[in-house]
Amino acid sequence: MKVDWEAVEQSLDAEGYAIIERVLAPGDCEALAALYADDKPFRSRVLMERHGFGRGEYKYLAYPLPPLVAQLREAFYPKLVPIANRWHQAMGIDVRFPPTHDAFLARCHAAGQVRPTPLVLQYGEGDYNCLHQDLYGEHVFPLQVVVLLSEPGRDFTGGEFVMTEQRPRMQSRPMVLPLRQGDAAVIAVHNRPVQGTRGAYRVNLRHGVSRVRSGHRHTAGIIFHDAA
User: Looking at the record's lineage, which domain of life comes first (predicted)?
Assistant: First the structure.
């Protein structure tokens, strides 16, 4: 996977997200989506409507993670650590992240965050995901990765991946991320720094999925911190 990480960093700084095309091949996407039918790889299932999260459902993967998901976690984390640490410094947050994902997970687990957070989401006609943030505990890595496993226009219609950004004393800014099958969106989990006339300040971001008009949509979420 060849990635222009400088371009990724520039897009994250400017928009709070970056799109990386063709992170997964179609066969890998279909294999990962097919896991959803089997409960064995997963630790829990969540029905969104039951909790007021929207409509649709998702399952959290269990350890050991499927090799493809584990590889994505390990490949992305060290590339995103410099951005995460720079963002925290700019926002005046004292926490810094270690260079390896194993070291960061050890920190999470020592604090009682031991449940894996990578997940697969499934949407059918009429389903959607409300705007939210994936926090899960005290230790939060400020970036995560979302991979679209289905092909828009073929497998489903509607179901756009959306984000909002809330700056102080301003109305929310909407963003629609144009993903195709196998594309990844690297997104801010919670806050990101924006340079103002008096220095950097924090803006708040949320993400979700608009209503699916037809078909079925599957997504993989790669979150780097574990859950309490």
Answer: Bacteria
* Full DSSP string of the chain: ----HHHHHHHHHHHSEEEETTSS-HHHHHHHHHGGG-STTEEEEEEHHHHTSEESEEEEEPSSPPHHHHHHHHHHHHHHHHHHHHHHHHHT------SSHHHHHHHHHHTT--B---EEEEE-TT-EEEEE----SS---SEEEEEE-S-BTTTEEE--EEEEEE-TTSPPEEEEE---TT-EEEEESSEEEEEETTEEEEEEEEEEEPPEEEE-EEEEEE-SS-B-
The whole-angstrom separation of Cα 56 and Cα 58 is 7
Domain for residue 227, yes or no?
A: no
- Are 164 and 174 in contact by the 8 Å Cβ rule? The answer is yes
- 228 domain residue, yes or no: no
Q: What is the CATH number of the domain that holds 108?
A: 2.60.120.620
Whole-prediction pTM value? 0.95
Per the structure, the complete domain to which residue 21 belongs is given by 5-222
The Cα–Cα gap between 180 and 147 comes to 9
Q: Mean pLDDT in each 10-residue stretch from start to end of the chain (228 residues)?
A: 93 97 98 96 97 96 97 97 97 96 98 98 98 96 98 98 90 95 97 89 96 98 97
